[in-house]
Design a protein that fits this description.
The chain is mainly alpha-helical. It is about 75% helix and about 0% strand.
Length: about 55
């Protein structure tokens, strides 16, 4: 299932994302997908840890 995520970035954040995307040789949307996926996976891992206690 896909869901839409809206993010607001200031100029500095946007410039940093452009630089990272250029260095990684990937497009900005793909970089954002990877960052968000890692963040969500980390959150899911934290929830699993809390539930196990």
């Amino acid at each position: 299932m896909r869901r839409k995520i809206v993010a607001a970035l200031d100029d500095h954040d946007y410039e940093q994302l452009e630089l990272l995307a250029t260095l990684s040789r990937i497009k900005r949307p793909e970089l954002l997908r990877r960052i968000i996926r890692a963040y969500l996976d980390k959150g899911n891992a934290n929830l699993a840890t809390e539930r196990a206690k």
